[in-house]
Amino acid sequence: MSFGYTLSGFAVGILVGITGVGGGSLMTPLLVFLFGFNPAVAVGTDLLFAAITKTGGVWVHHGKHGSVDWKIVGWMALGSIPFAVTTLFVLKYYLSVGKEITGTITFALGIALILTACALLIRSILLNRAKNIKPIDDEHSNPQNAARFKHLQIPATVIIGAILGVLVTLSSVGAGALGTVALLFLYPGMTTVKIVGTDLAHAIPLTAVAGIGHLSLGNVDGVLLGSLLIGSLPGIWIGSHLSAKIPEKYLRPVLATILLLIGFKFVLH
């Protein structure tokens, strides 16, 4: 069975490398439906899996490209980390272990998948639009735009972080696609590579805190985690090289439709 986990990690890694879709939106439903894992265990294991795999990506973005805005990462974390901890506290002390906690996580997973599917459908449009917008390096480049959004950007970033903190802790889904879309709306002058790098950097402390919290709740399977990592790391490497050869504009809508159907299945379960 561990070979099956490794093979699944490899397949998801390839898809993540090709499309940039977060592993959680693909991996967690796979663990629940194909391998029959309890949703809480699937979410907890996937969170630690994501924290480990995303670390390499941030190393590249920060070290090679210099494409992480750490100030924005800080504002998002100011909202996401406290709300992730609060969500874990509620799961531990206010929901009975068993059907109630499983039901909550299953419903949250469905909502997160539906939102992610919608985000995927508009993400490419926003990314293409962002490429055509001249980056705003300071408020003097476009004073009218700066005046309009400057007082809203920081509180909105913190609020988005808080929403992601709850959603990701409950479902392991949303840090990638939803975070990227939110940043594209809030910071239209940022370059695409900086949007991706910043969102990726924020996902690491969030998934790490949420994953460790789930570990303390007994929701992490160590054998499963190791097997997924063995498969996913080479899968992501191969997928990244295939991404230039496979048209993303065809693959992304298919993935979004699949996630939408799975999301409704979780919600209506």
Structure description:
The chain has helices spanning 2-19, 23-33, 39-65, 70-93, 99-132, 143-171, 177-186, 192-216, 222-242, 248-267. It is 81% helix and 0% strand. It has 269 residues and is mainly α. The protein is built from ten helices and no strands. It has one domain (2-267). The radius of gyration is 18 Å and the shape is globular. Helix 1 (2-19) runs antiparallel to helix 2.
What are the defining features of this structure?
269 residues, mainly alpha, 0% strand, 10 helices
Task: Break the fold down into its secondary structure elements and pairings.
Blueprint (H helix, E strand, L loop, with lengths): L1 H18 L3 H11 L5 H27 L4 H24 L5 H34 L10 H29 L5 H10 L5 H25 L5 H21 L5 H20 L2
Number of strands: 0
Specify the number of helices: 10
Structural class: mainly alpha
Q: Largest sheet, described in full?
A: none
Give the domain tally.
Answer: 1
Order of helices and strands: HHHHHHHHHH
In brief:
This protein is an all-alpha fold and 269 residues long.
